[in-house]
Design goal:
CATH class of the largest domain: Alpha Beta
CATH topology of the largest domain: 2-enoyl-CoA Hydratase, Chain A, domain 1
Helix content: 25-40%
Strand content: 25-35%
Structural class: alpha+beta
Length: 457
C-alpha cells in the first residue's frame, strides 16, 4: 500500500507552530485534522478526503463533554499507538481511572489528557488545545510569524532543544544555534515545561521582543529577539566553479509545499547551463512535508525505494522512484545535526541507492511517525503510530544518518559561518569545500566511465 500523499507531513521538532517555526517530529500523517495547504488552502479530513471547514466545526459541536474528549483520546491511542505494551502500562486500567473522574470543564479534561499521555513516556505523542492546534495549522499553511526556531523536547533529557534556526530569521540573526537548550523564556524557567507551553510563551505580536536564556555546552547565554513575519523560500540555487567545470549549488532550507516546484526549476536551469555536477545542502533543514521529500527524491533517483514505514502490526508502506529523474549528474549532499526527518529520508534514500555521497556530520535522528488529527472541539492529537526506514531498512531514530565523509566544524568556524552567511556554500565554508572536492572526484570518475556521454552533456 502506498503512503498517501495528501496530508502527510514530515518534520523535525516536537510541535508545529508558526511562532517558533517549522513543524513536528518525525513523519506526520495529517488525517482527520483541519489541515491547511499553504497555496491551495485545501482542508484534508479523514482518509485524505476533503470536507469544508464548516462541516468539521459542526461535527465538533457534538463532542462537548469533557469526559467524552478524554475517552476519545484514549480510544485513538488504544487503536493506533506504535507500542502495543503502552510503555508497559495497563492501558485499560488507565481508561477506567480517568473516566471515573469528574471534570468541571474542558481545562480539567485537557490537564487529565496530558497526564494520561505522559504515562506513555513519549514526548511526541501529545495533546493540543484549540490555540495550540491553531498554531500548528498556521505553521502548516506556511505563514510564519515569530522568531524562527525549530524546537523539540529531547527524548532522553526532556529539555527544550533547538533543532535549528530558520535562515535569515530573527533567531538566526541573533545567533541561536542547533542543539542550544532553552533554559528560560522571559526569565520563566522551562524546567518540566512541554513544547506547547514554550511555544505559547515565545510567540507574540510582530515587533515585540522575547528574551531566551540558553545553555550552549557549559555556557549560559541570553538573547533578546524581536518577533517578525518570516518568509521562507525553501530553495536557494546558485552556480559554483570547480576545476572540473560548473557546479550547481542548491540549498534546501525546508520541505514546504512549494519546494518541489522550486527544486525542479533550479535543476532544469542548471541542466540548461550544462553543469558538471551538484551539491545539495540540507544542513540545518528540520524537515517538512513527506510528499515533498518523496517528490524531490524522485528528481534525483532514476529507480529504487525512497522510504518505508512500519506500524505495531509490522505492516509496511513504501514509496519508490517513478522514472521521472531530472538529472543523472554526480551529486554530493551536505548534512549536519540540524538535518532532520524529511532531510534524513531524502539523504538516506540517496545514500542507500548509491546516488550521492554524504558529507558533513551525523544527522539529527528522527525516525518516528505521528498521526495528527482533530479531536473534541477544535483540539488536536498527535500520536506516534510507526517508524520510518531508509531503503536498506535502517532505523535511524535516535541515531541519525552517518555521512560518508565526516567534516566537523570547530566552534570558531561555526560562529564565523553564522555571523557571515555569505561564506556559506563557498570555499571559506569547510564542509562545502570538502563537498566540492568529493564532487570533483565523482565527476572525474563519471567521465572515465562514460567519456562519450560527458562530451554530449
Amino acid at each position: 500500500m502506498a503512503i498517501k500523499k495528501r496530508g502527510l507531513v514530515l518534520s523535525a521538532t516536537a510541535v508545529a507552530v508558526s511562532t517558533v517555526a517549522v513543524a513536528a517530529t518525525g513523519l506526520h500523517f495529517y488525517q482527520g485534522q483541519v489541515f491547511l495547504r499553504s497555496q491551495s488552502k485545501e482542508v484534508a479530513a479523514e482518509e485524505g478526503s476533503l470536507q469544508p471547514m464548516a462541516m468539521l466545526s459542526l461535527q465538533s459541536l457534538f463532542r462537548q463533554s469533557p469526559k467524552e474528549l478524554v475517552d476519545e483520546v484514549w480510544q485513538i491511542i488504544d487503536r493506533t499507538y506504535v507500542d502495543a505494551t503502552f510503555n508497559q502500562q495497563d492501558w485499560k486500567k488507565i481508561r477506567t481511572e480517568y473516566l471515573s473522574r469528574s471534570y468541571k470543564d474542558s481545562t480539567e479534561a485537557y490537564k487529565a489528557i496530558r497526564e494520561m499521555l505522559k504515562k506513555l513516556g513519549d514526548p511526541y505523542t501529545r495533546f493540543m488545545d484549540p490555540q495550540e492546534f491553531k498554531n500548528m495549522q498556521i505553521d502548516t499553511s506556511g505563514e510564519l510569524t515569530g522568531v524562527g526556531i525549530q524546537l523539540a523536547a529531547d527524548e532522553k533529557t526532556k529539555k527544550l532543544t533547538v533543532i535549528a534556526p530558520i535562515e535569515d530569521s530573527p533567531a538566526f540573526a541573533a545567533g541561536i544555534q542547533a542543539k542550544d537548550i532553552i533554559l528560560k523564556i522571559d526569565d520563566k524557567s522551562t524546567e518540566g515545561m512541554d513544547v506547547n507551553k514554550a511555544v505559547t510563551l515565545i510567540r507574540g505580536p510582530v515587533g515585540t521582543q522575547v528574551k531566551l536564556t540558553v545553555l550552549r555546552g557549559d555556557k549560559q547565554l541570553e538573547f533578546n529577539i524581536k518577533r517578525a513575519r518570516i518568509e521562507i523560500h525553501p530553495v536557494r540555487a546558485s552556480e559554483r566553479t570547480a576545476p572540473q567545470g560548473k557546479v550547481g549549488y542548491i540549498r534546501l532550507v525546508q520541505f514546504s509545499a512549494n519546494a518541489p516546484s522550486e527544486m525542479q526549476e533550479a535543476i532544469k536551469k542548471f541542466e540548461k547551463q550544462q553543469v558538471a555536477g551538484y551539491i545539495l545542502d540540507l544542513r540545518g533543514n528540520p524537515g517538512g512535508l513527506l510528499y515533498t521529500s518523496v517528490d524531490i527524491a524522485r528528481m534525483w533517483l532514476p529507480k529504487g525505494a525512497i522510504v518505508s514505514t512500519k506500524n505495531r502490526q509490522g505492516e509496511q508502506d513504501r514509496e519508490q522512484a517513478n522514472g521521472r529523474v531530472l538529472t543523472n549528474k554526480p551529486l554530493v549532499v551536505l548534512v549536519d545535526g540540524g538535518s532532520a526527518s524529511a532531510s534524513e529520508i531524502l539523504s538516506g534514500a540517496l545514500q542507500d541507492n548509491g546516488r550521492a555521497t554524504l558529507v558533513g556530520t551525523k544527522t539529527f535522528g528522527k525516525g518516528l511517525v505521528q498521526s495528527v488529527r482533530s479531536v473534541g472541539r477544535d483540539c488536536g492529537l498527535a500520536v506516534t503510530i510507526a517508524k520510518y526506514f531508509t531503503p536498506n531498512g535502517r532505523d535511524i531514530n535516535k541515531h541519525g544518518i552517518d555521512p560518508d565523509v565526516v567534516v566537523q566544524l570547530t566552534e570558531a568556524q561555526r560562529k564565523d559561518l553564522s555571523s557571515n552567511r555569505d561564506k556559506v556554500g563557498t570555499p571559506e565554508d569547510p564542509q562545502f569545500a570538502k563537498a566540492l572536492e568529493v564532487l570533483g572526484q565523482r565527476i572525474e570518475a563519471s567521465r572515465q566511465q562514460s567519456p562519450q556521454a560527458d562530451r554530449k552533456s
